[in-house]
Amino acid sequence: MAGTRGTNNIFFANDTRHMINEVQCVMYAYALGKAGLQMLREGQIAERELHMFIGREVRFHAPKYQAIYSRVLAGLGIHVHQFPENKTAPIWLLSFLAQKFKFFGSIFITSSHAIAKKNAAKTMGSTGSQFTPAEALLAVSYIGNIGELAQGIRVADRSLMDDLRDEGSFKIHMAAADDSHIHTDFMTRIANGLKMYANYIREGLLPARELESIEAKVEEGEVYMDCVCGAAVETQYKLFEELGIAKYFTWLNRSESPSFNGVTLSWRNWASKKTGVQAGLSDGSADTFQRFKDPESGLPVSPSIRSMGYLHRFNDSPIGTMVLGTDMDNDRAFAFEVLGEDAIPRLNKQGVLYEVLGNGRILATYDPNHSFLLFMNWRIQKLRAAGEDLSKYVMVGTAPDTPAWEMLAKHHGVKVIQREVGFKGLAISAQAVEHGNAHTSEGQTFTIEDVYGRQIELDHGTKILFMGETSGGMVMPAAPIQTVNEGEVHLAVREKSAIEPFIIALALKAELKESGQTMLDLLENVYGEIGYQMVFGTTVSKKLYNENAPVDEAAAEKEAGNAAKVKFDNYFMSVVFAVRDKAITLDQARAIFAQDVPGFPWDGLTEILFAGDGMKLIFGDQLHV
Predict the structure, then answer these.
(1) Whole-structure pTM value
(2) Tens-place pLDDT, residues 588-610
(3) Helix (H, G, I), strand (E, B) or coil at 449
(4) Residue 555 near residue 21 (C-beta atoms within 8 A)
């Protein structure tokens, strides 16, 4: 259950005009706790009592919201484990600890890479992945009737709304801040879990030979790391110290701030199709892949990148300088590179955007379609050198991902599973692989259905090469994870993390220095090897209502926006289902689209796929939509 991101009043946490507020936290904590207790009663949880981890990043009111969650859960008799001194932590660490210790789950106060005034709570279960829809609906049912959503799903016998209707009020008990169910001693005993995570990384991604290569080839402070004033400030730095690699980075924005110290804020002056040139203060969040057309240069520019000061900081940097960065909860990663202006034609040819730095330099802003491809290629080469049978590996991606990821995997014999958008689906596939391995023997196979309804056949003993999505989150399993109490073995962590891509990027930097290459050189080589041609990618985001406005002010606009979205989805999905169910032919689908969206090359449409929560249009090997 990822939680619904929304705004909160940055001055008053009790302002119920905004979606996220103290009352909402109380209700959500109560619902979650009651759902857990019901699962305990029904025997779905093996323990005799419930334990949960809770953590937060740097956002406004996050410490207050964490305290509310802890006290409401403690009031229900649930043990809550916090980080000492109420310090911040990244989301991947709470997921890892819940998975490792098989606790009921964990709650993390975050809104990921969203703007500073937003917040939410992400809830993860005992496997470390987000709650299943059934578990989420059970929790919501403790607040009120969920009607048709609950068909076939167990729900609460009695909700808070039932109490309000019958008795005129309802009660929720909040424990004292120093209640015996609220703990920090456990986290102290396990050193906040950092040593365990460091050992996990060393087992696969950073063995002694890789560390020796880095030590021999990378100079101290040579790679830049931007913490964007978020959770990476506290935990990632300490983890990298534990791993012995912190010294190879120059650390940027390494001071925590709920406003991110103005990072991501910029003065807006770009072109809009609807209103022409706009001007004003903009919060671009930590989404460095969001672009607007600069009315002066005509180039697509990133307000977030410009707000980070890169255009001035790196305009004298050596060619090949690597710049890495994350978001506020430390689960997404970006990788950029300083190149000479003579690289512009090559970048244009490969579909890589860039920012002009001056002094004959540009900043190549590789998006995950590019950087994750290189990281996956690095991992494949390491496994091949170690004598691993790559046909016993599987890559798990999502429908909107670049086809290059799948092409690279299949080029090396790696199987591919495509899922709907969201890491929850990727984690479900990881569990399915583990289940298939557990219920087969050597020489046997098992099948997993992907988002397109295809049956993917896997061998017993299959391992996971990579799980990722094009929005910037990935898992590159370093080693199997054994749970502490029950001895289960998991093939992969369940939640995305920026740590694995950063480790690989540092190791890759050492190899690039030795060969005298850049990331662009490597990207060209990989594209050439797999014969990839669809190098140009564009994601269009259409705002249907002002999601930052208070709930009461945005109600009518949101209703109209959602109605427009439903109408748009229904149009395309009706065609998708009609083709899938053979009610119409592909030629008829082309004719329908050509009539309603003229001027588009619909004649080249070769396939229409239903992708779980969307659709995919295939135009041969030149275009996917």
Answers:
(1) 0.90
(2) 999 999 998 888 888 888 888 88
(3) strand
(4) no
Alpha helices in 191-282 (DSSP H): 194-204, 208-217, 235-243
Backbone angles phi, psi at 7, to 5 degrees: -80, 155
Annotate 332-349 with b (16+ C-beta within 10 A) or e (fewer).
Answer: bbbbbbbbeeebeebbee
Residue 290 vs residues 89, 146, 301, 578: alpha-carbon distances, Å: 26, 36, 8, 34
Tens digit of pLDDT for each residue in 429-448? 999 999 999 999 999 999 99
Q: What are phi and psi of 37, to 5 degrees?
A: -65, -35
The 3-class SS string of 58-109 reads CCCCHHHHHHHHHHHHHHCCCEEECCHHHCCCCHHHHHHHHHHHCCCEEEEE
Place of tokens 């009790």: 14
Question: How far, in Å, CA of 503 to CA of 244, rounded?
Answer: 11
Mark 40-67 as b/e (b = at least 16 C-beta within 10 Å): beeeebeeeebbbbbbbbbbbbbbebbb
Tokens (6 digits) for 104: 């009921």
pLDDT 10s digits, 189-210: 999 999 999 999 998 899 999 9
Q: Say which residue the tokens 């149009």 belong to.
A: 571
Each residue of 272-328: pLDDT tens digit?
Answer: 554 454 555 566 566 777 777 777 777 777 878 888 888 899 999 999 999 999 988
Question: Which tokens sit at 10?
Answer: 């940055």
